[in-house]
Amino acid sequence: MVSIEAEPGVFLTVVATASAFHVILDTPLVDVSRGLLALYNLTAIEALELAVVDGPTVVAGVAPLSQEAVTVTEAEVALEVRAGGERVATLEPRLYERGVAHSILVVEGADGPLVRYLKAVAAE
To answer: Which pLDDT does position 116 carry in this prediction?
Structure first.
């Protein structure tokens, strides 16, 4: 059994790996007039970044078993995950809308990193 204590207003993600459970402190979506874009590095890769395809970096330096996030205005854009300047994966163009926490998760796969997208809509 795993016991986790959390303070009010604190958001956590619990990740189960083959060797242990890990608790990641999340960045909450505070201002629903904006969106949140988070990159989770659930791999052993030293540092991951999220960037606009052929554009600027949005989130950089995400260490293993951690996350970093930025608030965003509503926009449709294609993103890619990079490690050491090399593309790991490209995500199809998607509308990153207001009032939604958008999460890009990078996990270990049998043939290398796998990238998944999740979204959580703020409660009304």
So the answer is: 95
